[in-house]
Amino acid sequence: MWKKKKRKEQFAFNAEKVFLAAGQPLESVFNYFRTTQLGLTENEVEKRQSLFGKNEVVHEKRKRPLIMFAKAFINPFVGVLTALVAISFVMDVLMAVPGNQDWTSIIIVTTMIVLSAILRFTQEWKASRSSEALQKMVTNTCYVKRTGIPEGEIRIEELVPGDIVMLAAGDMIPADIRIIEAKDLFVSQSTLTGESDAVEKTPKGMGKKYHKGSVVELDNICYMGSNVVSGSAKGIVFETGNNTYLGTIAKSIAGHRAATAFDKGITKVSLLLIRFMLIMVPIVFLVNGITKGDWMEAFIFAISVAVGLTPEMLPMIVTANLSKGALNMSRKKTIVKDLNAIQNFGAMNILCTDKTGTLTQDHIVLERHVNADGTEDKENRILRHAYFNSYFQTGLKNLMDRAVLSHVKELNLESLSNVYRKVDEIPFDFTRRRMSVVVEDNNGKRQIITKGAVEEMLGICAYAELGGEVRPLTGDIRMRAQKFVGEMNNQGMRVLALAHKSFLSKENNFAVEDEQEMVLIGYLAFLDPPKESAAQAIRQLHGHGVEVKVLSGDNDAVVKTISRQVGIDTSTAVTGPELEKMNEEEKMKAVAVGNIFSKLTPMQKVEIIQLLQKQKNTVGFLGDGINDAAALRESDIGISVDSAVDIAKESADIILLEKDLMVLENGVLEGRKTFGNIIKYVKMTASSNFGNMFSVLVASAFLPFLPMMPIHILIQNLLYDISQTTIPFDRMDPEYLRKPRIWDSSDLSRFMIWIGPISSIFDIVTYIVMWWFFSCRTPEMASLFQSGWFVVGLLSQTLIVHMIRTRKVPFFQSTASWPVLIMTFSIMAIGIYVPFSPFGASIGLTPLPWSYFPWLVGILLAYCMLTQGLKMLYIRAFKRWL
């Protein structure tokens, strides 16, 4: 009870502290949080960092080496082997006649257990360390104000309670924060509440006695993990790390991750093989007991068969493949946040991407600034208004704002800001698609300057300035405006409109309602040229079975122009407003055939991804903006870039260190290669085990002695397992990498039934050869028989690696990597040597006569030829191999 109570307290969230923070009036809030309006001093920050620690939430506790090593022994196969060790200890040691105790089986099986666990631990340890190192390459920052230090960005982990934080659209809330200043601040708390609608936050105090309702509903508190949708704010950090609302949730669920389709597929394979073993082992025991009459020997043999049928390397092979894939991808500028995402990367057959920076150079320049009548802005009046709008805003400065600021800097006009001061602003949001600032000059003239998408701007303008005169915005002027914008769009330029309204009577608290009756004064035309590599990357992605669809909030003409320039078919383009009018059936058809989607809202991007997923596609989404966060979460594999906004990086499964489709293509191929190597092992093991069952059954039924001693089966299995450890280092055929690969366990049973019995045919041929040509018909000749089958069994099992790893003719059309070749042929050489060695003699094997080896070569060649023949039939019948 005490432990339960302690655990409950450990994960309990301090709601009382939050209500107290929310209740503080603004005039006393700095004293309450022991900070100042200028922020904390450097000494105070150091003290608080030592007291409160880093601002980190425990996603999964860092595993200690000893615990990881212990957990490496916990899997179904090790459980089976451990039970066999216990049985062998009872049968061969405790119940044996004194002086005849046999430790051999115990030593062999224990070696297999320890070897499997060491390999698994090594791979998992390397994977976790690599994952940590890769994650450190992706950093989230926040804008902080501290005494004696220039305002600027710091890593989120360095925040301490009492820090003054500035927030803008696109920022993740870096800690639990009490808002003290806000301007149209809307925050998405969907990660905490599941509600998709953004909620407004304000700085007003709730009153000291306010202790009711849910803490997430408090209007002046923002919680770590939520994100700013629009507006700007200033706040004081009052909780960090595991003491935050998100931190207490994370602590209670750390380490508990939902199983993916890939995890479930691997588990299905494991259970299938264990089920086969549980059925076949009792049958082997009964057949041997009845035919041989020695029930004790039959029992030990059945136990050994169980070991031979146990694929104890499966967990290690899967972990090794995934961790090696993640490391290879990191070398190709791709960081994997979740190892299991690699499989989805390889399975992806549709990539949805935004336009800016992916298809284009992500280097927007202000190409033209034009008056409303279409004449060039030679006096820089339009540029001046654009500069004030971009310079004075405190929200998310996008690429176009930076282009305006950069252009003004080139013209040495930055001093313009000295004669104006900012009065207020109406921040950008993705519904209005515009933002405004209110400025006042030294003479007291106040005006609102608004910049935004042309369609939305025309909707709030009642007048236009043409040739120095303000005229009503007639239909004819609107048509001229749209024609100009169309011409710019067709040249690949994105156009924003600029409007203003002067002589305002209002002094402060400006809001969206004030963006009315405005005067259209001009346009800004921005150019973001297509990347030279984009067309080639799209061709290569198409060549690898990945269809590229552009999902953009931008103007349809611009999106079409850029898409056409990089080789994407633009004949089936759909806009957001068109999509909105369609019914479900029409939408399904539109997303299936359409490649270009423009003027989309963030939720329409999500809807398109959901519709594609309903059509059994594996959908990736590449985005970097706040408006992409929902789509990143919804997609099968969210892909973002290191320069993305915080919420986009947090929502993604994979981070690209370079915003380039060529980097993405490398990652897709690595994902497919990793998946292919895992499938190789699964199919090799399943078919090999299936064939061995029949071989053992036939031998048990017709031979007067055991076809192989228990110790022989154990050694054979150990050598075979060692030969499999290099599979993660194998290459895949180029043809395999051309198509998306999804987990399909339905093919596994069919594969086992087709390929498994081939080894049984040649095992039976070996029985006949040893029986008739080497006269191994009596128990006295059992040792020679067992030696002959030991070598054939091990070599055929090892050769199957090369037969199954490719749909081509092995060694001639497709050769394994050097590590696989060296390991498999080394194990084959060891297998041939064992019967001739002192070790072989100690376990009851006999040197084979030279006349045996022509038979061995003939059996192995026939085995390879029949396997290749059946492989070709299988591919023709089912159109697949791995």
**How large is the count of helical segments?**
32
Shape descriptor = elongated
Q: What are the segments in which pLDDT stays under 50 over at least 5 consecutive residues? A: 1-11, 252-258
Task: List the strand order in the largest sheet.
Answer: 8-23-22-21-9-18-20-19
Task: Provide mean pLDDT, rounded.
Answer: 83
N-to-C terminal Cα separation, in Å?
Answer: 53 Å
Helix content: 40-55%
Rg result: 35 Å
Strand count, sense and barrel status of the largest sheet are:
8 strands, mixed
Number of strands: 23
What does the model show?
With 882 residues, the chain is α/β, with parallel strands linked by helices. Helix content is 51%, strand content 16%. It has 32 helices and 23 strands. The chain has an eight-stranded mixed beta sheet with strand order 8-23-22-21-9-18-20-19, with helices on both faces. The longest helix is centred in the C-terminal third of the chain and has 42 residues, at 661-702. The two termini are 53 Å apart.
Helices and strands in order, then pairings?
Blueprint: H1 2-10, H2 15-23, H3 29-32, H4 42-52, H5 65-71, H6 76-94, H7 104-136, E1 141-146, E2 149-155, E3 164-168, E4 176-188, H8 190-193, E5 199-201, E6 221-222, E7 227-239, H9 245-253, H10 261-292, H11 295-308, H12 314-331, E8 334-336, H13 341-347, E9 350-353, E10 365-371, H14 381-392, H15 399-410, E11 420-429, E12 434-441, E13 446-453, H16 454-460, E14 461-466, E15 469-472, H17 475-490, E16 493-502, E17 518-527, H18 532-543, E18 547-551, H19 556-565, E19 573-575, H20 576-581, H21 584-593, E20 596-598, H22 602-614, E21 619-622, H23 629-634, E22 637-641, H24 646-651, E23 654-656, H25 661-702, H26 710-724, H27 734-737, H28 746-773, H29 782-804, H30 818-833, H31 838-842, H32 852-878
Parallel strand pairs: 9-18, 9-21, 14-17, 18-20, 19-20, 21-22, 22-23
Antiparallel strand pairs: 1-2, 1-3, 3-7, 4-5, 4-6, 4-7, 8-23, 10-17, 11-12, 12-13, 13-16, 14-15, 16-17
Helix pairs in contact: 5-7, 6-7, 6-11, 7-12, 7-26, 10-11, 10-25, 11-26, 12-25, 13-25, 14-15, 17-19, 25-28, 25-29, 26-29, 26-30, 28-29, 28-32, 29-30, 29-32
